[in-house]
Amino acid sequence: MFRKISPFDIDDNVFKMMDKDWMLVTAGTRDHVNTMTASWGHLGIMWNLPVAICYIRPQRHTFGFANEHDCYTLSFFGEKDREILQFCGTKSGRDHDKIRETGLIPLETDSGNIYFEQAHLVLECRKIYQDDMKAENFVRPEIAKKNYPKNDFHRFYFGEIINVLVR
Predict the structure, then answer these.
(1) What is the pTM of this model?
(2) If exposure means fewest CB atoms within 10 Å of the residue's CB, which of 60, 63, 92, 160 is most exposed?
(3) CA 48, 50, 52: angle at the middle one, nearest 5?
């Protein structure tokens, strides 16, 4: 059973959560939703608000969902769900029903946003800012060349954290 806590009461190691444990970025409604695995992101304070920032490349199926909807969720899982995260990070929602094929159990927040029963931590976020990364803004161009050889720069979404759900 999930319970609500304040973003200020999250006591997980954010670096481990993002880099090692990974997360699912989910946008849409119960009838029209997509999710993808991500390992890049940020949690912090911006404009005096607790925020989560996620990154999505334009070719990802989730990109359209994130642009279309006002909210997204970030669902964090344990090692036992690594296969689910691997599948959702390598298969496209254009070709697969990721939720059905992985056995993810979708739940809805009070606002109607989707997260998953298997998660141990969920951040529900309302978008407040978005922009595209740009080659000319890299102070160290070698980072852009290494990570974006096709110039398929991420769009980043700042989301005010409006709910935190934990087990």
Answers:
(1) 0.95
(2) 92
(3) 130
Helices (H) and strands (E) in the chain, counts: 5, 10
| Rounded CA separation 1/92 (Å) | 30
Buried b (16+ CB within 10 A) or exposed e, 69-84: bebbbbbbbeeebeeb
**pLDDT, tens digit (0-9, with 9 covering 90-100), for 26-80:** 999 999 999 999 999 999 999 999 999 999 999 999 999 999 999 999 999 999 9
Superfamily of chain region 3-166: Electron Transport, Fmn-binding Protein; Chain A (2.30.110.10)
**What residue segments make up the domains of the chain, in order of their start?**
3-166
